[in-house]
């Protein structure tokens, strides 16, 4: 493998991604499905690549790119730090408290129910699967291709060679369930009158359908925080992400060779990036004011598109066929969990704008944040439900649970501590129900059609 091999691999990937974007922009049936261009490209890469027709000159190393890109994506999350404001937390405490409890409950159920189902039911049909099989559902559905690659790599380091391919398949199935299922539920909710900001599915903007933003609707991708005379702003932000990514890999190798401990590289990179975020310092005296979080988001999102492509294009079809029955059963259990969270627990734990908030959680519980954002923008294009605002405030509460699951989960599940792992997340789930009842964040008996929207702030105009 040479640098030119990498160049050809990414050139082929880029060609297919551009073709995917062209297909999205031109064909109505693709627009109606809202399939991302990178996912379309991934299917083309799978069909034309070495695992099927073998037409394109991909190298045999394309399966390794997803794991490397994952490190970069998690570094982007760390560099942006945590957005937590106690002042906002005190305002509208009931709405945000109920929403935070709902989001944490989603994690608890996705980390426990599929694993229980896998151990007690799927293993009867496929005795060869191990106790970690159920975690691939949560990694693929809740975490997306990036987390599936990271968790799959961790499982591979522990001796489970097919984990990454199965995780990528679960992630692909999750995105499809998120997009197609989300659109079905949006149409159902608009017919029932449960939506507040878009009453007709046909009102969706052309920008969302085609993926091409018209000039009058465009927004800035970021600001120049350093002078291009000294250093290009994009190079500056790119360096901020590559540093913890590379150092995370080196530090993890050092830890492994010195103490014999195995940690996911993406976790080390995330922690190093978070340390850089802290050292840069926020406020007037800090250096962090020269970091534009929007540029960091764009770099991380761009990497995610290539991650989705390589995650799908490198799937080994014989492995998927071999595990077709257990994998199909596992994904059905995952779909059942997220559907119950949307139409049963969603309205029970969200009072104002219950559907807008629940469909967003459904979206990122079946793929990535971008899927949730896409579904939300379909029915709440101006964030009047304050779903994104509340997510920014309560989002850090999820991070420790996710890091624990992705880092410690594979080790616990393969070392005989599977019921301990499941018990932790079941206890978290039960705790969420108890908290919701204690603080009266339980709206089970209130009719769905009579729920109000989130009230506008005084300085907020009705659009």
UniProtKB/TrEMBL annotation:
Pfam families: Glt_symporter (PF03616). Signal peptide: none annotated. The chain crosses the membrane at residues 6-23, 35-56, 62-83, 104-126, 166-186, 234-251, 263-281, 327-347, 359-379, 419-439. The keyword Transmembrane applies. Keywords: Membrane, Transmembrane, Transmembrane helix. It comes from Priestia endophytica DSM 13796. This is Glutamate:Na+ symporter, ESS family. The keyword Zinc does not apply.
């Amino acid at each position: 493998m040479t640098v030119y091999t990498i160049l050809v691999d990414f050139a082929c990937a880029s060609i297919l991604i551009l073709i995917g974007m062209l297909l999205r922009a031109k064909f109505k049936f693709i627009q109606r499905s809202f399939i991302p261009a990178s996912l379309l490209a991934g299917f083309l890469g799978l069909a034309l690549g070495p695992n099927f027709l073998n037409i394109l000159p991909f190298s045999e190393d394309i399966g390794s790119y997803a794991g490397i890109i994952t490190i970069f994506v998690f570094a982007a999350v760390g560099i942006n730090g945590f957005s937590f404001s106690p002042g906002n937390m005190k305002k509208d405490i009931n709405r945000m408290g109920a929403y935070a409890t709902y989001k944490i409950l989603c994690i608890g159920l996705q980390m426990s129910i599929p694993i229980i189902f896998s151990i007690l039911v799927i293993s009867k049909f496929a005795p060869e699967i191990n106790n970690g099989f159920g975690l691939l559902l949560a990694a693929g559905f809740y975490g997306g291709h990036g987390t599936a690659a990271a968790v799959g790599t961790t499982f591979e380091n522990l001796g489970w060679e097919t984990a990454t391919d199965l995780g990528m398949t679960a992630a692909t199935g999750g995105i499809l369930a998120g997009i197609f299922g989300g659109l079905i539920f949006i149409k159902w909710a608009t017919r029932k009158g449960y939506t507040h900001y878009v009453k007709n599915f046909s009102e969706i903007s052309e920008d969302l359908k085609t993926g091409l933003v018209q000039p009058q609707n465009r927004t800035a991708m970021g600001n120049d925080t350093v002078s291009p005379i000294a250093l290009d702003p994009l190079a500056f932000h790119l360096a901020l992400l590559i540093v913890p990514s590379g150092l995370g890999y080196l530090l993890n190798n050092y830890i492994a060779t010195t103490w014999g401990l195995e940690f996911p590289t993406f976790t080390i990179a995330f922690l190093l990036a978070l340390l850089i975020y802290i050292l840069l310092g926020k406020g007037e005296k800090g250096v962090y004011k020269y970091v534009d979080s929007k540029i960091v988001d764009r770099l991380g999102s761009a990497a995610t598109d290539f991650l989705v492509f390589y995650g799908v294009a490198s799937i080994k079809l014989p492995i998927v066929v071999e595990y077709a029955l257990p994998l199909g059963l596992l994904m059905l259990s995952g779909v059942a969990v997220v559907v119950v969270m949307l139409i049963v627990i969603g309205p029970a734990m969200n009072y104002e704008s219950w559907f807008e908030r629940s469909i967003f959680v459904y979206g990122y519980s079946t793929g990535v944040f971008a899927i949730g954002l896409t579904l939300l923008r379909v029915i709440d294009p101006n964030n009047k439900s304050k779903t994104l605002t509340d997510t920014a405030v309560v989002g850090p509460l999820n991070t420790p649970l996710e890091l624990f699951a992705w880092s410690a989960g594979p080790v616990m599940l393969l070392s005989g501590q599977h019921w301990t792992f499941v018990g932790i997340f079941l206890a978290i789930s039960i705790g969420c129900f108890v908290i919701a009842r204690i603080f009266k964040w339980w709206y089970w008996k209130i009719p769905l059609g009579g729920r109000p929207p989130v009230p506008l702030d005084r300085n907020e105009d009705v659009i």
